[in-house]
Design brief:
This protein is mostly helical. It has a single domain, classed as Na+/H+ antiporter like fold (Up-down Bundle), CATH 1.20.1530.20. The protein is about 80% helix and about 0% strand. It is built from 15 helices and no strands. Helix 6 runs antiparallel to helix 7. The N and C termini lie far apart (about 55 Å).
């Protein structure tokens, strides 16, 4: 019963958030993809190629338990965490860049995730089940349609979009709290089971991914931060779907708790980058001030 509630709430929370993100997008923001192809090309290369390769090297180096290693690599090959848009707002990063990357990664995942799964099946021998159809069903139902719907409302009914975005964001926050409360009884034991080597591997993975993303987002700091969050955060929905299909004997609730533990560690591992990025933000702001100005 509990696992069904978690699956339902998590699934619908993602749909609500994607719709809310589309509503909050700036009009014409998607055109930026064509205006700045180098930025998005670098960011996609980091997220789709460099981060998965780094994750594979780290799990081979630190050797966590097989299922944990699989989950770590899956969080690296399944890009496009919806929470990165919310994180971008709190870090004063470019929300437009974050949204554009989320849209591009959702589309690219239709090809890259099955390809990476095929590679991992060969080099790790894990026999993951992530057919293009499975990835397509997950993305086309939960991610792309609500995002496109939100963008359409923003484009054609901007006055409606503003008020609607506020209420859908509130609904998402409520659903997110429900998921956290439901998982809190399961995630803490799983955090203790990860082990020091696994936590260290995640810390290195997230830190390196964030700074690679920061490099890819040059030259503007707000774009650097958006790309760093995109590379550092992990999306749970597609990862959970693949693990449940790949390991049918595992309890879905236990799998959800394990993935939640990994996502929590990844979120905590981003804190040093966020602190550093905020310092860079203050430094850049100070440098822009004219001589003799006094900061508030």
């Amino acid at each position: 019963m509990l696992k069904d509630v978690i699956a339902f709430v998590l699934s619908n929370a993602i749909v609500v958030f994607m719709f809310s993100a589309g509503l909050a997008a700036q009009r014409g923001g998607v055109r930026q993809i064509f205006q700045r192809p180098a930025l998005y090309g670098r960011a996609l290369a980091v997220v789709l190629v460099a981060v998965p390769l780094l994750a594979y090297v780290l799990v081979r180096l630190f050797r966590p338990p097989p299922v944990v290693a699989t989950a770590i690599v899956l969080t690296a090959i399944c890009p496009g965490a919806p929470l990165m848009v919310k994180q971008a707002k709190s870090l004063h990063a470019s929300v437009t860049t974050a949204l554009n990357l989320l849209l591009l990664l959702s589309i690219c995942s239709l090809v890259t995730v099955p390809l990476w799964v095929e590679v991992l099946d060969r080099v790790m021998g894990v026999q993951l089940q992530a057919s293009p159809g499975l990835v397509l069903r997950t993305l086309l139902v939960k991610v792309i349609p609500p995002l496109v719907a939100g963008l359409a409302v923003q484009q054609f009914f901007p006055r409606v979009a503003g008020g609607l975005a506020v209420w859908t964001n509130r609904l998402f926050n409520v659903l997110l709290v429900v998921v956290v409360v439901l998982l809190v009884v399961k995630a803490p034991p799983r955090l203790g089971e990860l082990g020091g080597a696994t936590v260290l591997a995640l810390l290195v993975l997230v830190s390196a991914s964030a700074f690679l993303g920061h490099w890819a987002g040059a030259p503007r700091l707000e774009d650097r931060k958006a790309a760093a969050l995109t590379a550092g955060l992990a999306p749970p929905a597609l990862t959970l779907t693949i693990i449940v299909h790949s390991y049918p004997r595992l309890q879905a609730l236990e799998v959800a708790a394990g993935v939640a533990a990994i996502v929590i560690v990844r979120l905590l591992a981003l804190i040093p980058y966020k602190i550093w990025a905020k310092r860079q933000d203050r430094k850049e702001h100070t440098e822009r001030l004219p001589p003799g100005s006094v900061t508030g």
